[in-house]
Amino acid sequence: MSKENRYQEYDTWAWLYNQTMGPEYSKSQLQPIETLLLPKIAKNTKVLDVCCGTGHLVQLLSEKGYQMTGLDGSEAMLTYASKNAPQAQFILDDARTFELPPIFDAVFSTSASLNHIMSIDELKQVFERVYAALKENGLFLFDLNHPNQMTKWWTGGIAEGEITSNYAWAIASRYYPQDNTGYFKVILFQAPTNQTNPLKLPKLLLYKLLNLRILTRLRLKVLARFSQWEKNWQSSEITYHVKGYPHAEVESALIAAGFSDIELRTLEGDNTIDENHSVYFICHKAKKCH
Ligand SMILES: C[S@@+](CC[C@H](N)C(=O)[O-])C[C@H]1O[C@@H](n2cnc3c(N)ncnc32)[C@H](O)[C@@H]1O
To answer: How far is the CA of 198 from the centre of ligand 1 (A)?
Structure first.
């Protein structure tokens, strides 16, 4: 795949992802990896993180002794990843077309990265690329936001965000069940760099307070009208398109790519899939019959 076609849409907000979602998501994503993957592979084996982003999770696993490689399409995300996980290897490539020899004991992809793959044919290509990179019997774990979950939660409102003394960000997401597509928007507000009127102490304290978990609803309300709160901060938006895949469609694509023993789990590792969480698929590289 040429550089132009490589998925690189996270370049623009890599700096923000690196200090917000990167560290936060890596903590929650470690749980399914520890429950569903690590008990089934030997320590210090080779593991590949596809769509590794800023490499925070790669670092947590390097610290546990695994030989980590991360792959991502965004050069800016990988620049942070190399700093966050200095012992790991990183590969700048697209998940749909990368080619690696069968050297990995396990491959994973987290934080619903694969919802960015916009067709089932391309998702199957990702599965084929992962299959080729796994050793025989190797394991593949990934999560996807699923249609029922996105229908329930992605209704257009602001779902998360944060306010600091010189920038604020918010994420709004929307899903259209009729064609299983959706998007999320990252909205960014930045204070002027040569701010002549820096924030006064009461406002600074208010913003700090609003970031408390207990005040999430209020914070999201403020963020929804943030351009009125800080009239001279510059706002910008980036939109990311996603695709929702019914479980059966994903399973068929996995089987077509050669995977077997497919199990579906929640983040906590149980098998009652609900509308409140993404679904984790775990499967084996089966030996192909010729
Ligand atoms: C939501 S972030 C998740 C990053 C990381 N896995 C985490 O848990 O924080 C999605 C990542 O997937 C990458 N990505 C999306 N589609 C890709 C593709 N086709 N090829 C390579 N990387 C891709 C983006 O560049 C981004 O870094």
So the answer is: 35
CB 14, CB 238: distance < 8 Å:
no
Nearest to 273 by CA among 114, 141, 143, 111: 143
Domains of the chain from N-terminus onward: 3-146+245-285 (3.40.50.150), 149-242 (no CATH)
Tell me the C-alpha distance between 10 and 98, whole Å. 18
The preferred substitution site among 96, 116, 171 for testing ligand 1, maximizing ligand atoms within 8 Å of CB, is 116
The predicted model scores a pTM of 0.94
DSSP string, 245-276: --HHHHHHHHHHHTEEEEEEE-TTS-S---TT
- What is residue 4's predicted lDDT score, i.e. its pLDDT? 73
Q: What is the DSSP letter of 40?
A: G
Q: What is the pLDDT of residues 182-206, one digit of tens each?
A: 999 999 999 988 766 777 788 889 9
Do residues 39 and 59 touch, judged by C-beta distance below 8 A? no
Q: Give the atom of ligand 1 at the shortest distance from the alpha carbon of 49.
A: 6
Q: Tell me the pLDDT tens digit for each residue of 37-54.
A: 999 999 889 999 999 999
The number of the ligand 1 atom at minimal distance from the alpha carbon of 52 is: 6
Q: What is the Cα–Cα distance from 69 to 49, expressed in whole angstroms?
A: 6
